[in-house]
Amino acid sequence: MMRQIVGREKELEFYRQQSNISSPGRYNSLFENLPTDIGELCQLTQNLFVHQVWILYEEFYGITPESLKSTGRNLNNEINLRSIEKIIAFLIELDNQPLTATRDVDKRVVGNCRDYATMLVSILRYQGVPARVRSGVARYFSNKGFLEDHFICEFWNETTDRWQRADAQIDQVQRSALKITMDMTNLPQNQFLDAGESYDELKSGKVTPENIGVMEFRGWKYVLYKLMSDLASINSVEVLAWESWGICERINNDTLSEEDSNLLQEIARLLTELRAHPDRFGKANEFFRTNPDLKMPANYEPYYQEMPFFK
Fold first, then answer.
1. Cβ atoms within 10 A of the Cβ of 299, count?
2. What is the pTM of this model?
């Protein structure tokens, strides 16, 4: 029991610290006096972003990519903003007001689920709350059993002594359109599946390959890719949704060796067991930091993703 307590304390201290990506940097003072209630923080985060897919339909937020581009904005640049410091810098450029002020939709950064999750994680860490981004899939975007690519925030709830999952993206507009009634600040079990759980879901046959992923990127290749995305995220490297290096290149090119497959299976096990067994955190951290096929290269630069509808 003592070993487990020590392991948990070490894990929680790690997640109280900002990463290079989650740190607000020179805008640290803007996080002063923010609310501490998780529901209010989710609402605050929703006021800073507008989702890149939802603006394709004007009826949801009253704006379109065309209306934003007409003001001189480069939307592909926005979705590639990787650090919270750069995101806040652009927010200030759009409208220099406190983060708590109500923003017009056209004064929000165009982003995606990863950005909402990373912003919430950044604020919670600033407040001393252990928090991390998780990369996986969600059930609540479809009533037809499709598991949609997604990122959420996972934070340590000291009262209940557990990791709690919160989705900062789902605002009232999306809640209404998707007919969601659950508490998005405390996601019920199995509504969001991290990459390890996604792997288990596909391997067990609970979901078919065509019913897990995003757009045309589905099935085993997608799920194996997400293992790396989630492994990076739980190591406080809050990657963009499309980042790729090391073993990911062999996943994308269908050239995995038996050794690669065994390594990915081990990552899936570690990720699945992570919440209940804090000692798995140390192993996952060691894997990511030392394995040449997993660790991020020193000269790594993220791929610049261009959405055709933003050109």
1. 5
2. 0.96
